[in-house]
Structures are given as C-alpha cells and as structure tokens.
Design goal:
Blueprint (H helix, E strand, L loop, with lengths): L1 H67 L4 H26 L5 H17 L1 H16 L7 E4 L2 E8 L3 E5 L5 E5 H6 L2 E3 L5 E3 L2 E4 L6 H12 L12 E8 L2 E7 L1 E3 L10 H23 L9 E5 L2 E5 L5
Helix pairs in contact: 1-2, 6-7
Amino acid sequence: MNLILLQSTYDLGKSTTTEVINGFKGLGKWEDMGMEYLPKIIAAVIIGLVGFWLIKWVTRLFVKLLRRRNIDISLQNFLTSVIRISLIGLLVLTIISILGINITGFAALLAGAGIALGSTLNGTLGNFAGGVMILILKPFKIGDLIEAQGQFGIVKEIGIVYTSVLTSQNRTIRMPNGALSTGVINNYTDQDNLRIDIKVPVADYTNVDKAIKVAIEAMKTIPTVISDPAPNVKVTELTSDGPVLVLWPRIKVKPYDAANPRQMEADYYSVYFGVRKAVYDAFVLNNISTPSNTFEVTMMGERSPHKGFDE
C-alpha cells in the first residue's frame, strides 16, 4: 500500500514538473512573439498618429488652395473628400504592411474592383471627369450665354455630370460634360461687351459710303447698342448682285441677375432683330435698294415680288 502511494506521489510530481516546464516554454514563445511584434506595433501606432496628423494638414492646405482659386464649393467638398479618403487608404495599407501582413491580396482585390467599376461606369466617369475640368477651368459660369454641342442658350446649372442650358424657346437642354469639356464652346458673354455680326446685302451700283452712314445712324437708335465701342459697318463681300455689308453693333455684357436671368439673352435678340428692322427702314427712307432676290407670289393672276435682306 505504501509502495503504491509513493509511486502515485512520484508520478504527480513528475507531471507537475513537466507542466511547469511546458508553461515556462509557452511563456518563452510569447516573449519571443512580443519581442518580434512589439516594435512593429509601436511603429505602426506612431506612423498612424503622424499619418493622420499629416492627412489633416494636407487636407487643410488643399482646401485653402481650392478657395484661393475660387473653385465651386460643391467641387471643393468632393475633391477634399477624395483626397482624404485616398490618403487614409494609403496610410492603412502602409500600417498593414509594417505589421507584416501581406497586402498583395488586398491590392489585387482593389485593382479588380476598380477595373470592373470602370468598365461599368465608363460613360458616366467620362462625364464626371469633364464636369470636374469645367468646374476647375471655368470656360463658362452660370448666367453666361453660350453656344456648344449645337445648342444656344443661358447656362442654368453646372453639375458634376451634366450642364443645363436654357434656350430662347424656354427649353432646358442637359448636355453631358464629357463631350462638352472636349468640344468647342462659344462664350458670348466672357468679355465686357459683345459684337453682333449682321450681314446686309445692297444692290449693285449702290453708294456704299451713304449706305454705311445710314446703317450706322440706324443702329444708334437701338437703346441696347452701346456707343463705346461705336457701331461700325464694313464691306465683307462683293457678289454679282452687289456688295454685302456686315453690321457691327455691340451690347454691354451685364452681370448675371438671378431675378432676371434672361437679361443678356433679351439684349442680344433686341439688337439682333432690332438692328435688322431699323436698318431696313432707314434704307427704304433713303432710297437704298437691296438685291432683287425675290420669290414670286401669284395672287388673282398678278405677280407680287417680295424683297428683303439675305444673310
């Protein structure tokens, strides 16, 4: 009995000693892991804190730069968010790499997602990029009278993807920014005054000097035609029917007024059509003939010619 008791005590002590030794070995492994990863963790924390501080500093600097260039507020917020998110993503990947985690899989996943998203939103991304370029370069602003993509009207709204133009027929045309940013844009209100070109033919053997003087005086009767620079007339063509005069009245470009958004358009058309009528009436009063480019209307057996300006 005593022999069995002694044997049990010996086995218990041996197993306890083995467990204690294994425990110390486990502590040693934890110590080795701590010695291996603790510097990495400390470095990651330090880089994370410094990185977030740098991101805030870069973001504030970027916002100041955008405000200094008078970038649209909606574009400011969007670009600032893009910069901040991109920098944070780069910082997170850097911290993961410092900790010894393989980021190859993350990079491949992000690249694949980017390619798939780009293929799906190809046209939209092109319009989006065009909108960003328009808001940065500012080829026109809200209230400008422009001609682009075969449309003519007042810029009503400049969005990230589309630009809206209000036409003289009171139609709203939404033009995609991708094509708009890469196409020809004719801005009629970019300068302080706008010259309107109107062609007027006169009959052969007309006293051109007299016609020019009469046309200039007629243009001065239109209230929206400015006197400085003064209206002018030039001979632009010589045809078989006679010379062609080009009238150069100018209107003042006024600041956009939200209460009267069509002011510039109204001034433009008042001169465009008003000058034609005023010059025609003045030519009639001064016996200045226009070419007999006529169409014939037969009425009750008689032919009645119709004469007028040909542009």
